[in-house]
Amino acid sequence: MGPTASGKTDTAVRLASEFPVDIVSVDSALVYRGMNIGTAKPDDATLYRHPHRLVDIREPEAPYSAGDFVRDAILEIDDIHGRDRLPLLVGGTMMYFRSLIEGIADLPEGDPGIRVAIDAEASQDGWPAMHAKLKEIDPAAAARISPNDSQRIQRALEVYRIRGRSLTECQSGTAPVRSDFSFIKMALIPEPRAELHSRIAKRLDLMFKQGIMDEVRTLMKRPELTAEHSSMRAVGYRQCWRHIDGSWTIDETRSKALAATRQLAKRQLTWLRNESGLFTVNPLEVGAYEAISTHLRRALEPYKN
Fold it and tell me: For 32, phi and psi rounded to 5 degrees?
């Protein structure tokens, strides 16, 4: 696990060269086809040497939820175990990790009409105001969701309007998905934060040089794809869409994409610092990979036949 731009893919590939592991992606954007540059998807050569499961499994018009991920991940994990290998779960979508490890609540399917209504309210009042509404009905959810995290605010309000119960209430009482799974939890947590911000900025600039704007233009040609689809709410894609439709200048687009990526990293780090039983390494320090490799080797020792 780790925040964006922390070096998860490089570390995972090195581990896959050293251990009998198969990589399973835990990333809500990498599931989509045609979204390569803005997601920092591993290149074809890397995917050829070390295939990543749950990459390129959905069209960008199709929804993909935490429940979908849990179902798909379990199938992949069981298949990997059946080959006498170990699944290495790699990514930064913390809700997916939590759902797989702790269980997932029985939440209602999305309601397009309700989502349109929430979006209309947000267009008029702003997402911080919608966050304030969420705080009135679900203080616990509001405390863990950023006032600028439109997707999660929308989902929490949607659940309440469908069920008449808060998201927190609906999520209470969940049980682990599989009691026979044992997780070795490791995370890359870069320090100092300023260096992580520098890496984020460099990667964003590289995405623009590689052609993320053209990638979004190609996606916008898909007749059924809109800016409101979950795939297009991913950081980077949402901001580029707004530039192409004439809402923002290129400088505004880069600035807003950079700010959104930093906010994402902050949320990821907050989640990781509250995660129990987590072995953490600063990837910016010398010997970081060796520390992870040594920890994993020791953690696997009890499971050897």
Answer: -95, 135
* Predicted confidence band of residue 305 (pLDDT cuts 50, 70, 90): low
How far apart CA 86 and CA 159 sit, in angstroms, is 36
Q: How far is CA 205 from the centre of its chain?
A: 21
User: Length of the chain, please?
Assistant: 305
Which one is predicted more confidently, 171 or 124?
124
Residues 81 and 187: their CA atoms lie apart, in Å, by 23
Query: Are both 8-104+174-303 and 112-171 of the same fold?
Result: no
What pTM does this model have?
0.84
- pLDDT tens digits, one per residue of 85-114: 999 999 999 999 999 998 887 778 888 899
CATH class of 8-104+174-303: alpha beta
Q: Give the 3-state secondary structure of residue 87.
A: strand
Neighbours of 113 (CB within 10 A): 9
CA angle 161, 230, 3 (to 5 degrees): 110
Q: What is the signed CA dihedral for 198, 204, 206, 208, rounded to 10 degrees?
A: -150
Rg (CA), the chain: 20
Q: Where are the domains of the chain?
A: 8-104+174-303, 112-171
| Domain at 112-171: CATH code | 1.10.20.140
Position 173 pLDDT exceeds 70? no
- CB-based contacts of 175: which residues, under 8 Å, 6+ apart? 103
Sole residue written with tokens 């705080």: 135
The candidate with the shortest Cα–Cα distance to 234, out of 2, 1, 4, is 4
Reply yes or no on whether the pLDDT at 38 is more than 70: yes
